[in-house]
Amino acid sequence: MDFHLSDELVAVQDLARSIFADRATTDRIREVEASETRVDERLWADLAGAGLVGIALPEEHGGAGLGLAGLCVLLEEQGRFVAPVPLWTAGVAALAVAAHGDEEQRGRILPAAADGSLRLALALEEFAPAEPDAPACTATVDGSAWRLTGTKAVVPAPQGADAVVVSATTDRGPGLFLVQADAGGGRWEQAETTTRDLSGHLHLDGAVGHAVGDPGGDALRQTLRRATAALAAIQAGVARGALALAAGYLGERHQFGRPLATFQAVQHQLADCYIDIEAMRVTLWQALTSLADEAPGADAAVLVAKWWADQAGLDVVHRTQHVHGGIGADVDYPAHRFFLWGKQISGTFGGAEAALADLGERLAVEEVAS
């Protein structure tokens, strides 16, 4: 199977890399991390102006029509620079509206989401023991709308979001609902995450929401698959960025009159990182191809990509921080920032062990069915 990027995706990659390299400098990231919202609004505006914020959305609504693959190319470049903008959450939430929303929702939301003037947040996780595909948050019918009650945990970057795509369970099964960020019956509790992002716990008590797709249908399942792939793409970028930083550091530092990069033990560490990153990217693109083709094994492919992103991604940021020696433990040094991003992504929607357990269960069910 050929996983080479198309010319369109290569152009997206080059443009995104250029913008992130210019705008997401270490000094700028430090400045944003000390700001009130922890979101780089200037960078968001630059990405929107270049047409990248709406890269995945349909052309008829102002996007570039490149779908999840286009979004993942953008996210991998973001990960290389650990740039503090909520691209994955806004992108996956907008794709949920594009794929499952009704005509009114698509016409009202997607053009503004594509040009960056409207931003969606994504609330898919809850506190244990709730699983993302079986939320404890509930939604009950109230006329043409729904009333949502429950708590969504650690909603990424709600600052500046106009609305939130929320998962909740109905009497028909789980579904997605669009809730205004300042809706009555909703309350935000600020929470700081591992990546230094400001997230929020969203407490809902009868807040009004509007269904995105048919409750009990496949909107939540499809959105979770897209979100998982999006996180794997960021993690691949984070790992790549961490490896590049470590290679540059080791080439400059000397010990016993030789560059540290010439020591075999260090070379082996970075070789292992390179192998892990290649496996992460191959399994990511296998998952994206399976999703695009609606292949029978798409769910398994996504879980495989998640396992590699969680396990290998965390291994890479551990190794690259380790080879920096004492300076790698400095919380203000760039290597530590890559470690923080890798650590948080590896635990989102459950860690590597959860992905492996889900994959084993799925394969067992398929074996019994055959």
From TrEMBL:
Cofactors demanded by this protein: FAD
Domain Acyl-CoA dehydrogenase/oxidase C-terminal: 219-362
GO molecular function: acyl-CoA dehydrogenase activity; flavin adenine dinucleotide binding
Domain Acyl-CoA dehydrogenase/oxidase N-terminal: 7-116
UniProt keyword Flavoprotein, yes or no: yes
InterPro entries, alphabetized: Acyl-CoA_Oxase/DH_mid-dom_sf (IPR046373), AcylCo_DH-like_C (IPR036250), AcylCo_DH/oxidase_C (IPR009075), AcylCoA_DH/ox_N (IPR013786), AcylCoA_DH/ox_N_sf (IPR037069), AcylCoA_DH/oxidase_NM_dom_sf (IPR009100)
UniProt-listed Pfam families: Acyl-CoA_dh_1, Acyl-CoA_dh_N
Keywords annotated in UniProt: FAD, Flavoprotein, Oxidoreductase
Keyword Zinc: no
PANTHER family listed in its UniProt record: ACYL-COA DEHYDROGENASE, ACYL-COA DEHYDROGENASE FADE28
Entry protein name: Acyl-CoA dehydrogenase
